[in-house]
Write a structure and sequence with these properties.
629 residues; alpha/beta; GMP Synthetase, Chain A, domain 3; eight-stranded mixed sheet; seven-stranded mixed sheet; 20 helices; binds 5'-O-(acetylsulfamoyl)adenosine
């Protein structure tokens, strides 16, 4: 089904609501199944339980690879652009990708891995990362990709939570002018991970690493031991495809579980629809495969659609601020999908970094990850799109698996800063604080979803109770997104930001509680409260208020100790931009920190702090204000 006009969009939306089973049942026919599904949907948001295509059987890699060999064997599946512009790019055809995935899948099998086993992947943005992901899916193993910027503690926690039997990593990774010691970080993590039996190490940087005999295996040796014939494991539609961790409001990250059938149908449909991908187009999503955006819109969606997807190893600022635009010109990118935080950073650089390059191949631009401010939207539109490319502002979450609210490129009339309208099948509801549905237009509320969609996360790995409590208990019968949202007079949606305790820094979701618990571990700190405050480039920055045991003699010394603690435990991305030492925190009588007040102080907006009479000790607010940074 193709949507090429606003009329077709409205018609498709109407069909999807009036008869969802017919709508999604018809779409599922565009895929390769071992057993076509006859049951389309069973659901109950009270349990909550959702099953899509439950008697269908498939393997997602046959949809991403095998079926394209008939007519696209020689078409490029992945263009890989390395960190360093001096190194050659790689073009990998569908046939080559198929062979390499099957070969590596046989490596996994040779070491005893199979259906249902969890495999952790901690790798740089090299083609072998996509190959490892697909090889897991080929044999029915569940991948858990951990972003290669995470610390050894974060890696170990995720490996242990999923009880992974294998870790796939690299010797090191290149990011801008830095080299990161991935294997060293992994070795540190593995001291705490008894479930891991083997580590496969891909050689990227050729730096010296220590290899533990019996446990550690080189990727390039292993693939010599096997052939490239590997029949796909037949999976039930609701079997696990992957786990991906996302921050929560308690310290412990949530392993969001995605399953095979619904995820495939939804990511493929939304990829084709939102970006209006046409045969021959080159599509580039700048995300890392360590985030859901990379899973759904670098690997699975584009490959299932038979597209050519560009994978970039580097960063936007290396060797200079023109790197993205250089890559666009070099490969003639047609569709470019990035994050507002990258746009804001590039916007600060001199326009000559943009204007040096020919960007006329671009047809469509996209953004994802956080609300985009009007200034950044306009800059992107004028300087990158030359007022001639639709911008799709795509709202979605790790939990939703795929894009939920977005313009359809060239079809939906745009409004800067608006994600615009829900995609077919997505039933949005705005709630007021008391839990009543807000019916009208020109309103603001909490964004909920009233009906299942195929790619929704089915549970939190090992903790269904937490899944229910986090997403389905705030408003009974609805999925709660955690985001605030406006609906304007035209029924257009605009996301206003998180309403819970998650801070989005440069597009990365960070749980305040996780950062707080790390800072609390410092022997001089008694208690911490972490909030976000607006930042020009990163969207939000992190402000930490810490109560210390005694007067701090050397504040800078303590600050730098706290920063390294956070960096080592969570990762550099979670380091607070400001740390204020305070005598106490504003708490309610029941002991809850009033973050609303701390947020206002951190943003230097203390004129109207609202009602502070519910505080146990309102005078503490004055004390904190005096020391604000
Ligand atoms: C895809 C992704 C999810 C949270 C989400 C929002 C925020 C994402 C937009 C956005 C405004 C957007 N997954 N968010 N996209 N806010 N406009 N287009 O980012 O799980 O890492 O984050 O990101 O708050 O709830 S995520």
């Amino acid at each position: 089904m193709e949507i090429r006009s606003l009329l077709q969009y409205h018609q498709a939306y109407k069909n999807s609501v009036e008869d969802p089973e017919k709508f999604w049942g018809d779409l599922s026919k565009g895929f390769l199944w071992h057993q076509e599904p006859s049951k389309i949907l069973d659901w109950d948001f009270k349990k909550p339980e959702v099953h899509w295509f439950s008697d269908g059987q498939l393997n997602i890699t046959e949809n991403c690879l095998d079926r394209h060999l008939i007519d696209k064997a020689d078409q490029t599946a992945i263009i890989w652009e390395p960190n360093d512009p001096g190194e050659a790019a790689q073009h990998i055809s569908y046939q080559q990708l198929f062979d390499r995935v099957c070969r590596f899948a046989n490596v996994l099998k040779r070491h005893g891995l199979g259906k249902g086993d969890r495999i952790c992947i901690y790798m740089p943005m090299v083609p072998e990362l996509a190959i490892a992901v697909l090889a897991c899916a080929r044999i029915g193993a569940v991948h858990s990709v951990v972003f290669a910027g995470f610390s050894s503690t974060a890696l170990a926690d995720r490996i242990n939570d999923a009880q992974c039997k294998m870790l796939i990593t690299a010797d090191g990774s290149f990011r801008g002018s830095k080299t990161i010691d991935l294997k060293g970080i992994a070795d540190e993590a593995l001291k705490r991970c008894s479930s891991v039996q083997h580590v496969v190490v891909f050689q990227r940087t050729k730096q010296d690493v220590s290899m533990e005999p019996g446990r550690d295996l080189w990727w390039h040796h292993e693939i010599e031991q096997v052939d490239s014939h590997c029949p796909a494991e037949v999976m039930n539609a609701e079997d696990l495809l992957f786990i991906l961790y996302t921050s929560g409001s308690t310290g412990k990250p949530k392993g969001m579980v995605h399953t095979c059938g619904g995820y495939m149908v939804y990511t493929t449909f939304t990829f084709k629809t939102v970006f209006q991908y046409q045969p021959g187009d080159l599509y580039w999503c700048t995300a890392d495969i360590g985030w859901i955006t990379g899973h759904s819109y670098i690997v699975y969606g584009p490959l299932a659609a038979g597209a050519t997807t560009l994978m970039f190893e580097g960063v936007p600022s290396y060797p200079d601020m023109g790197r993205f635009w250089e890559v666009v010109e070099k490969h003639q990118v047609n569709i470019f999908y990035t994050a507002p935080t990258a746009i804001r950073a590039l916007q600060k650089a001199d326009l000559s970094f943009v204007n040096k390059y020919d960007l006329s191949s671009l047809k469509t631009l996209g953004t994802v990850g956080e609300p985009i401010n009007e200034e950044a939207w306009n800059w992107y539109n004028q300087n990158i799109g030359k007022d001639n490319c639709p911008i799709v502002d795509t709202w979605w979450q790790t939990e939703t698996g795929g894009i939920m609210i977005s313009p359809i490129a060239g079809v939906t009339p745009l409004k800067p800063t608006y994600a615009t309208l829900p995609l077919p099948g997505v039933r949005l509801v705005l709630m007021d604080e008391s839990g009543s549905v807000i019916e009208d237009n020109d309103v603001e509320g909490r964004l909920c979803i009233g009906f299942p969609w195929p790619s929704m996360a089915r549970t939190i790995y090992g903790n269904h109770t937490r899944y229910r409590e986090t997403y389905f208990s705030a408003y009974e019968g609805y999925y709660f997104t955690g985001d605030g949202c406006k609906r304007d007079q035209d029924g257009y949606y605009r996301i206003t930001g998180r309403v819970d305790d998650v801070i989005i820094v440069s597009g990365h979701n960070l749980g305040t509680a996780e950062i707080e618990s790390v800072i609390d571990e410092h022997e001089k700190v008694i208690e911490t409260a972490v909030v976000g405050f607006p930042h020009d480039i990163k969207g939000n920055a992190i402000y930490a208020y810490a109560i210390t045991r005694e007067m701090v003699e050397n504040e800078d010394q303590l600050r730098s100790e706290i920063l390294s603690l956070v960096s080592e435990t969570i990762g550099p991305i979670a380091k607070p931009d400001k740390i204020q030492f305070v005598p106490g925190l504003p708490k309610t009588r029941s002991g809850k920190i009033m973050r609303r007040i701390l947020r206002k102080i951190a943003s230097h907006e203390y004129e109207d702090l609202g009602d502070i009479s519910t505080l146990l000790d309102p005078s503490i607010v004055e004390e904190i204000k005096k020391g604000v940074l």
